Amino acid sequence: MSQQEIAQQKLVEIFAHFGKPSKFSKGLFIFLILIVLFAFYALILQMTRGQIVTGMRDYVIWGIYEVNFIFFIGISYAGAMISGILHLLHVEWRKPIIRIAEMITVISVLIGPLYVLLSMGRMDRFLHIFEYGRIQSPIVWDVIAITTYLTCSILFLYLALIRDYALLRDNQELKISSFRKKIYRKLAVTYHELPLQKKLLNRGLSVMSAIIIPLAVLVHSVLAWIFGMTIRPGWHSTIFAPYFVIAAVFSGTAVLIIAMWIFRKYYHLEEYITEKHFKYIGLILLVLAGLYGYFTFSEYLTVWYGSETWELEVIYKLFDFSDYGAWFYLAAFAGVLIPMLFTGIPFFRNINTITIGAVIAVVCMWIKRYLIIVPTLETPLLPNQDYRPEYVHYHASWVEWSLTAGGVALFFLFFMIFIRFMPIIPVADISEVPENKEFISEKL
Amino acid sequence: MKNKNASRRKFLKLGLAAGASALIGGGSVLSAISKVNKPAGGDKVKMLSPEGKLMEVDRGHALCCGVPTSKEVRKGIPGRHFVMVIDLSKCRNARKCVSACSKMHFLQPGQEYIKVFLMQDSEDTSPYWFPKPCFHCDAPACVNVCPVGATFKREDGVVLIDNERCIGCKFCMAACPYSSRVFNWKKPGLKPEANYSPESSVPQKIGTVGKCDFCPDSFVSGILPDCVTACPNGVYYFGDKNEDVVTNGVEALRFSELVKNKSAYRYMEELGTRPSVYYLPPVDRSFPYERGFEELPEEMKKAYKVKRAHLKKFKI
């Protein structure tokens, strides 16, 4: 059998898992749509009545919208860093999981910036950024960085998809409607696995993965600088950019593990996504957890030891159990140590524990971002002596929570729609004979 | 005695007239002094004609030069550097500045452009009242971070916000270390019949940022900001640093001498923002600080007592 034939066979096999949507996935789809619709209702409410419907007030001017923004941009690192780095290193086992990683990237970079719009008082004036944009402002840096990042990650995903679209176009066995065939033909851009085409495509992918890594680092650095450039305790820190980058790769890797688990389970891809993948990615998560814990420790130790009054005020809000203490210890200790335990010690290490560790990491990273934003804003330089309790302490309103749920639902919805149109496993790639078989260690 | 006082007041006002005529102007038709007690008939202001004659005209006529163009608004009055000196020894938290400011800017209930804080620098020192408008910094962090140039620094030192350009990202509020800015979380209730200008900040616009604007629309017609005239204790001195004169509506003083002799300071100089607001230290006070609680509603009293609870708890 030629390589093309093998690939076609694999394509048919894989698509067998994605054939007809099950009752469960139909139900889930409707459920997610309902959540998104409810979020839409909340959005209309916020647009008509103003941000008074949120929990944000004059001191805590940014709430969980910003948390979600950082969170989604953070998990986009799955594709950018993991897939980019593994691609550059020609790591063979990456192949079955990179498509998932890149899809996470594109979808989360599509959703993340929506939260910036939500936290703006005048969404209708968004275009003012282009009309009157000033390069001095870190927000403008952010707009430039994120649009570039989004473009590049879409391109990266698409380049890797071309070979699979060519397979889909040439496939005779699968029942593909002529309309879809037409789309696939367009998307495959006359790719026919010719040696020159293959070479150029590979080169393009290598270039894109080399571009996307520094770009991803830059995007999260700029995001950190939005906070780091202000003179506020808990934000004004020189390590904020690398700290944010590490936190982002950490949460992105954890989300990748969760996505791998879901796909493996519900689409029966055990053959392609194996325990070995979980162990390898788990080891990456282990290293990142260690790095992230180190950054956290370094950040808070320096500030606490320095004992500047304004900084201490924030620190003690985080350390104090009557305030944010419980959340802080959960995010800073449990969120780091439990994933390390499940990924690092062979006795605890299996597909399910690694996934549980990843879930804990993701949830704790969300909490940690909340703890970065809210306590700092609750601690102004001049004491907050406002007599209105809602101006002193921030509590996210139901509008903000439903828009948060809406974003998460949208994330899953996008996934469910995307997998109807693109093979979740890069068929053409995995049908290839490995370029460097001896490179893979069989032992772990 | 009473008569003598009254005539002294009058004299000072006239003295101010001379000072103010130098202060304001640009060679236009009329220059003005502070607001005069309102006569029954209408809102009159005392003004100096270019020949130096004192006359009373309608407030409407005082605004002689029409609405400035947006370019003029962004440029400001050339050759001026507006400053404020706040005498902490005279403040007793009467809050007349706050209410007058809120009234003239048609602020939403609860919104304050000027906040009065109860400060205590250390446990051994006495608490004092600390009124705080926008500091109109010469190195304004808020202006640096604005992505659209909606907030801007003028030649005359004033920092303003263009609410027709503001996108409501609130980055300026995060950047301002003095919490000087407020946000219009909901639709402003009052809709005064006025054309919007960044100089008047009226009417407010939903989803945009507002703050103390040093009332440039008033001083164009020679009227002092309302916080200055409303204060019963003459805490606020407003004026021009270049002209070297500040006034609280009762007395006009040399700015340089005042800040030198009374060892004025700027709040948190080490932040590097270079504020245009100077404070005179709370020494030889006119009132004990407890007086500031007298007319306060219960919930405000409570809020003033809560202060840096965490630092107390950890004994710092």
Beta-strand content of chain B: 15-25%
Cα separation of the termini of chain B: 52 Å
Low-confidence stretches of chain A: 438-444
Number of helices of chain B: 11
**What is the CATH architecture assignment of the largest domain in chain B?**
2-Layer Sandwich
CATH class division of the largest domain in chain B: Alpha Beta
- By DSSP, the count of extended strands of chain A is 0
| CATH class identity of chain A | Mainly Alpha
Order of SSEs of chain B: HEEEHHEHEEHEEHEEHHEEEHEHH
**Helix coverage percent of chain A:** over 70%
Sequence of strands across the biggest β-sheet of chain B: 13-12-11-4-14
**Overall pLDDT of chain A:** 91
Description:
The complex is a heterodimer of chains A (444) and B (316). Chain A has helices at residues 3-17, 23-49, 64-75, 77-88, 95-119, 128-132, 138-170, 178-187, 195-228, 240-266, 275-306, 309-319, 325-344, 351-377, 389-392, 398-421, 427-430. With 444 residues, chain A is mainly alpha-helical. In chain A, helix 4 (77-88) crosses helix 9 and helix 9 (195-228) crosses helix 10. Mean pLDDT of chain A is 91; it is low at 438-444. Chain B has 316 residues and is of the alpha+beta class. Chain B has two domains: 2-62, no CATH class; 70-292, 2-Layer Sandwich (Alpha-Beta Plaits). Chains A and B meet through helix 6, helix 7 and helix 12 of A and strand 5, helix 5, helix 6, strand 9 and helix 10 of B.
